[in-house]
């Protein structure tokens, strides 16, 4: 995504994954800024995004990507709880 950003090419995601608050939080932490979600998911995803500190999340995601864990769900839930992210 960094290379695309340098070239001025937006990276977007369309699908159900972006409409789930925890998954959307991870995607935003990875650098995605455009998520296509169903109308019913707009409110919860918007509330989640407004409740998080993007810099803290990006720093946390950088560390998570160095781990060999197959699933990061538990760690993402811990981050959300510890940082009062509205899921």
The gist of it:
Helices cover 55% and strands 7% of the residues. With 87 residues, the chain is mainly alpha-helical.
Walk me through the topology.
Elements: H1 2-6, E1 12-14, H2 21-29, E2 34-36, H3 39-51, H4 54-64, H5 73-82
Parallel strand pairs: 1-2
Folded structure, characterized:
By secondary structure, this protein is mainly alpha-helical. The protein has one domain. Helix content is 55%, strand content 7%. It has helices at residues 2-6, 21-29, 39-51, 54-64, 73-82, and strands spanning 12-14, 34-36. The protein has a two-stranded parallel sheet. Strand 1 (12-14), helix 2 (21-29) and strand 2 form a beta-alpha-beta unit. The radius of gyration is 13 Å and the shape is globular.
Number of strands: 2
Work out the helix count. Answer: 5
Q: Gap between N and C termini, in Å?
A: 25 Å
Helix content: 55-70%
Describe the sheet with the most strands.
Answer: 2 strands, parallel
Relevant terms:
87 residues; globular; 2 strands; two-stranded parallel ribbon; mainly alpha
